[in-house]
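Entry 14: structure prediction run for DUF305 domain-containing protein. Input pasted below.
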Amino acid sequence: MTKPIVLSNVTKAYLEEYQRILDKMMQGMTYVTITCSISDNFIKQILPHQVAAIRMSENVLQYTTNIFVQNLALEIIATSTETVECLEAIQNRCCIVQNSECELYEYMCAYKEITGAMFQAMSLPPVSNNININFLREMIVHHQGGVRLAQNVLRFCICQELIPILRNMIQTMCDRICEMEKLLDALKDCENC
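Run finished. Output tokens:
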């Protein structure tokens, strides 16, 4: 059995803010008024996810001195801010595209399974006193969940304006997951030296 990690005050402060961001994201993604439009529902559900990526990145920037993590956080802020703006710009038009009750049910079942797994993984206790490692672990799971959520909505009849945004989100998040996994491995190797 592994001993619990003794966390520094700095790590505790980082994690407390992370938990506030996570709680707000989970609440925002869970308590959405569902309509007959999968496009509309998805936009309302994914906006808190994208905002959380921005806030989590801003949080790590207060603590990290690692240039690679800083650059990554700044990239996430830029791309997530752009995604939020694109989604908000089309939201009023996308809600016009309606779906059947059967499609809504299927969409929501998959959505609940994906978010449940993501919320659980993002709520796991820290494995390190290293803020960079904690941030990367959290953000990898966050991005994996985002990819699955976007892939889920693409299975249905949705607003045509939403499709290129979703494809771009998937590509960006997949590229970033690879980048973060490599960086995480490098940081773990350094920690074990």
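Notes: The first helix runs from residue 9 to 30. Will compare against the previous run tomorrow.
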